[in-house]
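Exam revision sheet. Question 4 asks you to relate a sequence to its structure. Input first:
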Amino acid sequence: MKKETILTAVVFFVVGFLAGYITDAQMNWSGRQKAVMPATPAMPSEMPGGGAPGAAQDAGMPPGLPEGHPPIDTALVIKQLQEEAEQNPKDSDIPLKLANFLYDQRQYQQAIEWYQKSLAINPKNVNARTDMGTAYFYLGQTGQALEEYSQSLAIDPDHKPTLLNVIVVNLEGTHDTAAAQRAWDRLHNLDPSNPALQSLKQKLDAARGSGGGALPRQ
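Answer key, structure tokens:
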């Protein structure tokens, strides 16, 4: 889920070719693992995947596309993937691509519906379930997010993106520092060089220093 293709900006005059190009492009960039980004106040202010909201995303451009890339026709991409899903009801990848696309457009509720459809076909897809949990978190449904992460870890206890999200959601959502610390310890054992660990440790220490409850307000 961590692949991303650098696309070249080309002007297409044939509508059918443009539609196919857009669909192929979104399939590449919307497949990244979704990660909750820690922030203050409690709800994250940055988009999952490391990119802060900006003009390109607000205009329907996916994170990471080069300047000058033709704008994405969101409605067209959604329509095409919906049709593909109807034509291939046993293929879990198509609804997953649509879920990822909707997620990157910050249409989290609709993304969840398509994650659910993908998981109905392939319930053991840990990446899809974790991404759905992150979408729930962005809708303010922290408990449901943690439930999805728990199911992911039941399948793959060493899934590092899930453990990272568990830390952040317990810090930012439930303010459960003990649960966050357990997940931090697990991730540290698995991946001690993870660049997020140091900042998360500082947040853990700050949360405990404020009485073990909510993160301190700034």
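Marking note for examiners. Residues 1-30, 39-64, 212-218 have pLDDT under 50 and may be disordered.
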